[in-house]
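To whoever is on call:

I kicked off a structure prediction for a single chain this morning and the downstream step that reads the tokens threw a length-mismatch warning. I double-checked the sequence; it's 413 residues and nothing unusual in it as far as I can see. Pasting both halves so you can look.
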Amino acid sequence: MVLEGKHFLVISSVYPETTDANHGAFIREVIVRSQQPGVKFTVFAPAYEGSKSHELDGVQVYRFRYFLKRFENLVRDGAPTKLKRQPIYLFVAALYILLGTCQLFWVCCKEKPDLLHVNWPFPHGLMALPASKLLGIPMVFSFHGAELLLANRFGFVAHILRWMTPMSAVVTANSSFTKGLICKLYDGPVDIIPYGMTIEAKPSKQRPPGADPRILFVGRLDERKGLRYLLAALPTVLTHQPVQLRIVGKGILESEIKAQCTALGLDHVVEFLGFVTKEQLADEYASCDIFVLPAIIDSKGDTEGLGIVMIEALAHEKPVIASAVGGIVDVIHSSETGLLVPQKDPSMLAEAIVTLLSHPEQAHEMGRRGFQDVQSRFSWSRITPLWQQTFSEALGINENLNTKDQLKTNTMV
């Protein structure tokens, strides 16, 4: 085994506290699937409202404290939204970087990792840089999109990433959209490695006779998910046929979205489920007729870097309707595995929903093709070797690099 005896320290703004939690589940999935005898992983992530360090899946998770317990939720529900709405979080963000840097250096001295896997290089690349330089630990930078859209808005972030990214041994992106943003700042090679689903797919469940069709939305209730446009489309959909919309997730805009729902007279057809377990989430996918992700480019320039929830819906053989923004176009082949519509357009969104509900055979065929596509491009059997080869390359272990090139070709179109 090429990576035997190596120790990887994974740095992330989000990481689950339990096996059933969804925050950062895709980061956990990479670690769980990359574990082999003789290979060690450690995680460095922020505390959530005072949470303590713990062990999960046999992996030590260091939770670093950065502020008073009440405000230790910067990275939950979208840091950019919090920074815009509550200026005190600017001070919290500064302490996040400063105290995180100090505690990460201490963890590196204690654990002596061979490689730092830095997710969201801004700000985590800044936090990892002292340990990397002073202790001689190579870094892998993995971009997810949000930090690059932040760079489009703030010049100083772009300057930092332009200066810092060449210091990474390997740079990865979660989609071609994210890679395009990286290439505006960095002219070196960028590997596209997507993430796969974080739940186990279940067989589709038949609705009771006479039950209304179900539309499912899964995501954080913030601006860039575009949920308010889906709600705005529902009255038009309801003029054609009754439907039920089920919303999984919570977020900073929850009260505003619920108020919109009431104002539109939709309380009887919309159910807010909040956070659910992985088992419950799989049940929701299996029970829906259509999955909708009406994402937008928000007022901060942020949008979807990839959209794992769509991959999970396709894995349940469900057709997807989504906006043609960001990394969504990497996942959905319009008119084949789902329908792509313009962002912020409730009328087009309603038309797409009515089209699929009116043609269940077409919807079923899209779901079938989507399932086949997910198995081909987004299965962990393809993605995990990509990460293993990325880590090998960063450590200067050049075995099987041709295999990596082949897997990259097969994973993304």
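Update from on-call: the warning came from a stale cache, not from the record. Cleared it. Sanity check on the structure: The chain has a mean pLDDT of 91.
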